[in-house]
Write a structure and sequence with these properties.
By secondary structure, the protein is of the alpha/beta class. The protein has seven helices and eight strands. It has helices at residues 32-43, 57-66, 78-89, 106-110, 123-126, 141-152, 156-161, and strands at residues 4-7, 19-20, 26-27, 47-51, 70-72, 96-99, 114-117, 131-132.
Length: 164
Amino acid sequence: MIKLIVLDVDGCMSDGKIIYHSDGSEIKNFNVKDGLAISSWIKIGLHVAIITGRDSKIVQRRAEELGIKYLFQGIKDKESVLKELISSLGFKHYEVGAIGDDLNDFKMLRSVGRSFTPKDGVKEIKDIVDTTLTCNGGDGAVREMIDILVDENDLREQFMALWL
């Protein structure tokens, strides 16, 4: 059973675009359907981590809004951070699912039990993941991944009970 999902941000939780204002602030788009699925996953007692190569106050805010406890930003070696997190939680690699879209996610995606990439992930990532999703990054890809995991892990009843 997947107990922990690991999310990349740019290109997975967002569409990968980074828009800068003249004052240096940035904008990212997040999908509310992704957010509901992430917060629901947490509410049924499972875990979520963000491991991203960039450092952004926007991502910190989004993680706080969704109740994501494990946030790692500015990470160059995502696989090492993931291995430490898995060990600290007492999980096995096969109890982890992850989504990534580009080469900096390669090693992390190869080290988990269930791997995903959005429809617009790069070819090299599509070649190694278990599932290429039908949604693009920032356009419901995380929701699609969570829906697949909910069904594969027989969690649909628990998931739906939160809202019905």
